[in-house]
Amino acid sequence: MNLFESGDNKIPPNPISGTVRTRDGITLRYAHWRTARPPAKGTVIILHGRTEFIEKYYETIQDLREAGYEALTFDWRGQGGSDRLLANPRRGHVESFDQYVMDLDTILKEIALPDCRGPLFILAHSTGGLVALTAAPALGNRIERMVLTSPLIGFGEFGLSSGTLRFVTGLMCTAGLGSIPFSRKSSNADALRDFASNQVTSDTKRFTRNSEFLIEHDELAIDGPTAGWLFAAGQAMRRIHDPDFIASISVPTLLISAGSDTVVSNRAIEDYGKRLRSGRAVQVAGSKHEILQERDVLREQAMAAIKAFLPGNVS
Question: What is the CATH T-level fold of the domain 16-309, as seen in this structure?
Fold first, then answer.
């Protein structure tokens, strides 16, 4: 399966890439890299945020390889190079976050467990963090530790309360309008180049790298979420906040919030870290939503926390 690169976003050496099919027939694109410093300490499975794709994580993948880890990542259904779910491939859609959990389970069973060096760790961003938490009660015997950057535990400055958003999008889904876009966010070239109004990074270099890459490879892009996607996200957040659900999570978990995040709720992240029996929350002050796409002075704080939290294993 093809991986793409650009002048300043090169594919890390010797990828092993391909596709797998979920039990409901969705084809997922994945890529796996061995460590640059064997023997491997384990494998970090990177779970993307909404709209993201494998190529956006080349820099982080190489950092993990240099730190002694293997790296495995894949595109969620409906985005990147995996199967799209609607006739209009630009619409960011899913019917339930259980479908994302199925994607993760497929990667674990088909690629991670048979082909990757253990122990297995998860590094998840935003939507990926919500998926990881949704799956967490079933991950205790498979995943050693999880790091979640800017996890979608609560919406940020969305303009509607979570309850109102869930009610409105639920009505739309009931009326058969779940595949209708709820946001006007566009992936056209002008929108992608608009650094001044972006909510995700204060780093002009990484912003430009990612934007120009997506303009060149626009088949990887998606626009704003559908009503169905937002309703599914709201239902998943409601589930993970249940006290009994939280008590069932045994995987040690580090939550890293971005101090200047407007996409997700930092208060929700901080509170959730306190409620986890084997978890805690830290914050990178001054960072926008995409901590791993931030300026070096901010990104390096997150990478240091990640490397300190993931234990090594060379046995």
Answer: Rossmann fold (3.40.50)
